Amino acid sequence: MLRAVLDKNLKHWEDCLPHVEFAYNHATHSSTKTCPFQIVYGYIPRAPIDLFALDAADAPHIDAAAHVDHMITLHEQTQQNIAAANAKYQVAGSKGRKHVTFEPGDMVWLHLRKDRFPTLRRSKLMPRAAGPFKVLTKINDNAYILDLPAEFGVSTSFNVADLKPYVGEDEELPSRTTSVSEGEDDEDINYNTSTSTP
């Protein structure tokens, strides 16, 4: 929003910040179905001056109990809206993904990410996976500890997104060196597993 408002006047960002803040808090959000101002204050201010504190003599008198009930109802409705939005996002994000879990003793291929295995990913022609390695411990459905050789020099716990089931001796190493286009990022590789973090 700041970028759109400032355009080329970058030095005036501090002057624009209050206006952008008011506009953001005044806008209805898709998840909550209301604006942040209404969630916090119980009403939608028409202008910034509506947020200024009034003297006790000038302040409107309202029924405190009614106001509390209104805020409680508003917050409950907001929580329901957020939960519904999260469920919708979860369904959309899970389409096409296969939920995979492993048990101690299972053999898996390990995806070699560039940031975690820089020496093993110096070239685009080097394998993008290694293994098979044995699963030693299941931390939860998303995190596992592997029997990794010491020369790898990294933590032995991995997210399920970096693991692929080992089928057998006839299976080829999933190097991804020929099936992935040049310049493709690690994040583009999908083993069709759940990608939530441990």
From TrEMBL:
Cite the GO molecular-function annotations of the record.
nucleic acid binding
Enumerate the residue ranges of region (Disordered).
Answer: 167-198
What InterPro entries does the annotation carry? RNaseH-like_sf (IPR012337), RNaseH_sf (IPR036397), SH3_Tf2-1 (IPR056924)
Domain Tf2-1-like SH3-like, chain residue ranges per copy: 105-167
Q: Which domain of life is it from?
A: Eukaryota
Identify one Pfam family in the record: SH3_Tf2-1
**Gene3D superfamilies per UniProt:** Ribonuclease H-like superfamily/Ribonuclease H
Q: What is this protein called?
A: Tf2-1-like SH3-like domain-containing protein
